[in-house]
Amino acid sequence: MTWPDPVTLGGEHVRVEPLSPQHEPGLIEAVKDGELWRLWYTAVPKPEKMAAEIARRLDLQAKGSMCPFTVFDAEGHIAGMTTYMNVDAVNKRVEIGSTWYARRVQRSPLNTECKKLLLAHAFDTLNCIAVEFRTHRFNTQSRRAIERLGAQLDGILRSHQVSPDGTLRDTAVYSIVAAEWPTVRSHLNWQLEKPR
Fold first, then answer.
1. What is the pTM for the complete model shown?
2. 54-59 contacts at long range (C-beta below 8 A, 24 or more positions apart)
3. CA pair distance 56, 62, nearest whole angstrom
4. Per the structure, how many domains does the chain have?
5. In a domain? residue 163
6. For residue 4, is it within any domain?
7. Residue 2 lies in a domain
8. Is 90 exceeded by the pLDDT of residue 21?
9. Which domain holds residue 137?
């Protein structure tokens, strides 16, 4: 039995459902919007590598270390990918990561609601004790988004990984722990309900 089980979660602005090879054409169109693979500090798949990325994530799911999702916008169009990763079933911890979105949905309520749904499932259904977020130290857009969620910076893992271009990645590690979830949930609800 895998933990966590694949699940579909939905809200007003977003729906996440288990990643499937059938999502490849929509994911290719989404990744072309903004050409995120060109950012040197991200690991977003190029359009021609999407099938391999889907296969990689599904293989990690089969091994029990990832639960990958396709992200859909309010109109039902594919907008990106996200995952529960670095799954630790014994210690009830997951990381929400390997997330990317088409440019058209960035800075919209989609990410906030997506993270709220994944956090609620992690804490309320899976009984996680903590949820992590990790990103490149230089990915300031991602770091600001993680901080807006209410996650706390745990620290920087220096020279943590070798990037595809050979540079060393410093990884910023954030988390939300179970005791913080009620307050973070209220904060995310306010973010979604406040006038724009």
1. 0.94
2. 54/19, 54/20, 54/21, 54/23, 54/24, 54/27, 55/21, 57/19, 57/81, 57/83, 57/98, 58/19, 58/21
3. 10
4. 1
5. yes
6. no
7. no
8. yes
9. 9-193
